[in-house]
Structure formats: structure tokens, C-alpha cells
Amino acid sequence: MESRLETVCRICGLDAGEVRFDEYGSPLYVICECCGCESGVEDGNAAAVRRQRGSWIGDGAPWCKPKARPADWDLSRQLSSIPPGWR
């Protein structure tokens, strides 16, 4: 059986290893260090995710916690980590 735990931010694709949605799909209300979105609040459906992502990218894709940003961070590479259903 495949695990349904979600650790990737639906908005920006960051995978910090923190579980955002449990195996039942329930949100754990984790705030993303990159885009600042909270799981279960701004990412409840695909349309909301796309709107939020567009807004974040339109603002220059700023990091919520700049000190957490890796030196080799690449926006395109991170966005490619977003699960297909949330792209």
C-alpha cells in the first residue's frame, strides 16, 4: 500500500520533510518556510493552489524564512517537485 502522507508544499514544491497532510488527507497546518502558505488553509483545492502560486511567483517568489533558503536554490527545480494533481 502506497503512503498518502504529503510532505511537499502544494504551492511551491518545497519538501522540508515535514508532513503537511496525514495518511487520511487531513491537513496538519504546517507553514511552509519558502512560500509561507499554511497546509489546509491556502491549498484546499487546485484552483486555490494555482492562484496562491501565481501570486507568490508574481511577487518574485520570496522566501518566508530567508535563512532557510539553500545557497543552490532553483525555483524551476523546486516547482517540478509539486505533485501532478496540484500543478
Short description:
The protein has two helices and no strands. By secondary structure, the protein is an all-alpha fold.
Task: Give a written overview of the molecule.
The protein is mostly helical and 87 residues long. The protein has one domain (1-87). The chain has 2 helices and no strands. The longest helix is centred in the middle third of the chain and has 13 residues, at 46-58. The two termini are 24 Å apart. 20% of the residues are buried. The mean pLDDT is 94.
* Radius of gyration from the alpha-carbon trace, in angstroms: 12 Å
* Main beta-sheet strand count, sense and barrel state: none
Count of folded domains? 1
Which oligomerization state do the chains in this entry correspond to? Answer: single chain
Please tell me what the overall shape is: globular
Q: Based on DSSP secondary structure assignment, what is the total number of beta strands?
A: 0
Determine the mean pLDDT: 94
User: How much helicity do the residues have?
Assistant: 10-25%
Percentage of β-strand residues = under 5%
In DSSP terms (H or I, runs of 4 or more residues), the helix count works out at 2
Order of helices and strands: HH
Q: Which parts are unreliable, with pLDDT below 50 for 5 consecutive residues or more?
A: none
Distance between the termini: 24 Å
Class from helix and strand fractions? mainly alpha
